[in-house]
Amino acid sequence: MKVLVIGASGRLGSTIAQVLPYDVQSPTREELNLSDTQEIAAALDLLEPDVVINAAAYTDVDMAESERDIARRINSDAPHAIGVWAARNKVPVVHFSTDFVFSGSGDRAWGEVAETGPINHYGVTKLEGERRLQEAAGPHLIIRTAWLFGRHGGSFLKSVLRTASKGGAINVVADQIGSPTFTEDLADGLVAIMRRSEGLSTFASGVLHLTNVGWVSRADFAERAISGACQSGLLTAPVSVVEISTANLPSVAQRPLNSRLDCTKVALEYGVVLPRWEDALGRCLQGFTL
Question: Which residue is catalytic, options 22, 58, 122, 270?
Fold first, then answer.
């Protein structure tokens, strides 16, 4: 089975491409340019995949407020173009989305059918991408995740540790709560879902939430990361984490405060439960580089 991974040079896509037990196609951005929807169908015709995994996105939340056109083309127009091609060719699509499709209000975990309400342009475009993929009416699976970190690419984890390596206290928001999700665990979860679909000889379309187990504030995650980095020798000395509120964070785009995702559905339907975030963080820090 030929599986096309779009975004294979990115934080999540690179990990997925490494662990998939299939014939993996990893086109470059020149070979498959998501910012030009006119070219997407032609590129897919040449590649002829049996499954498409879209792990690519415009993810700079603040820049998306000013670069609205390119953010919409990559996060909304491209998934639609992929979906149209996939529906015509009866090829399943796995598309990764985000907790940012929700408003972040309250303190209950968001289920797959919870009311959406993004509060920044990045979230708006990601929600549009979900809906336009669904409207294409081909076989598709949308996987929403949150707070990705890994050994490859940028992340909140890498930003915290790089800042901590310079010494001095660091300010981190304490009122944003979510599930830090290790890209390697997420990729393994995807493989399990795909294996399960193969076993059932069907590809059930819909939306799933998938994160590591457990919730934590960004400030507490930062403290745990710094402590672990000191124990592993990545940092020479601990630094203090000063808790601040999101309201006092200088940023262009608003951030949701409640990013908890309810992952009950994927556990019941596919038997997939990712490890706790604390365990995932410890494993990620082994071999981590700044």
Answer: 122
Residue type, 113: V
Q: What phi, psi does 213 have (nearest 5°)?
A: -75, 140
Alpha carbons 3 and 93: distance in angstroms, whole number: 10
Domain boundaries, the chain: 2-154+180-213+260-275
* Cβ-contact 84, 132 below 8 angstroms: no
270 assigned to active site: no
Report the pLDDT value the prediction gives residue 203, as an integer from 0 to 100. Answer: 76
Name the residue with tokens 């879902």.
193
**Domain 2-154+180-213+260-275 has what CATH class?**
alpha beta
CB 110 within 8 A of CB 127: no
Distance from C-alpha of 268 to C-alpha of 160, rounded to nearest angstrom: 35
Angle at 170 between CA 164 and CA 173, to 5 degrees: 125
- Whether 224 and 278 have beta carbons less than 8 Å apart is answered as yes
Q: Is the dihedral of CA 184, 185, 188, 189 positive or negative?
A: negative
User: Is 49 in a helix, a strand, or coil?
Assistant: coil
Overall pTM > 0.90: yes
35 φ, ψ (degrees, to nearest 5): -80, -10
Which tokens hold the place of 200? 């059932």
Pick the closest to residue 7 from 81, 50, 57 (CA basis): 57
Which helix or strand (DSSP H or E) is residue 182 part of? Answer: strand 181-182
Q: Where are the alpha helices (DSSP H) in the chain?
A: 13-19, 37-47, 68-72, 78-89, 121-135, 156-164, 183-200, 218-232, 264-270, 277-285
Say how far apart CA 186 and CA 188 lie, in whole Å: 5
- Report pLDDT digits (tens) over 156-188: 999 999 999 999 899 999 999 999 999 999 999
Residue in 192, 180, 173 with CA at minimum distance from that of residue 249: 173
